[in-house]
Prior knowledge:
By secondary structure, the chain is an all-alpha fold. It has a single domain, classed as Hemerythrin-like (Four Helix Bundle (Hemerythrin (Met), subunit A)). 75% of the residues lie in helices and 0% in strands. It has five helices and no strands. The chain has helices at 15-36, 40-68, 74-96, 103-121, 126-130.
Amino acid sequence: MALITWDDSYSVQVKDIDEQHLQLIYLINKMHDAMSTGQGKLILAEILEELVDYTKTHFSYEEQIMLKCQYPDFNAHKDAHEALTKKVMDFQKRYQAGQVALSVEMMNFLKDWLTNHIVETDKRYIPYLIK
């Protein structure tokens, strides 16, 4: 059963970005489902790989759009992206170093990312993208 279901509160009103954000919701639900069946540790490496790919692709795309529309808070937003990317890379390094018990911490991180970054931070650029 899905932990998070997409609704309009997550939308930034840009189809491509919304579709990318849906991918993050998919990863959260995938992690949640695995944890619900006691399989969280088994898919952690896979989730981490997908997150690394996601951060590279999604953040690059989003930043290009923000630059194009001259979003005035671009530098702070890019800094937030860099912090999220660093956190994902840190999780991956910790996993590779043998710390496999990261499932709950990862789930909390992903939910926080969704609510704090997408719902709050990303929503700030909507007026500039719509122009």
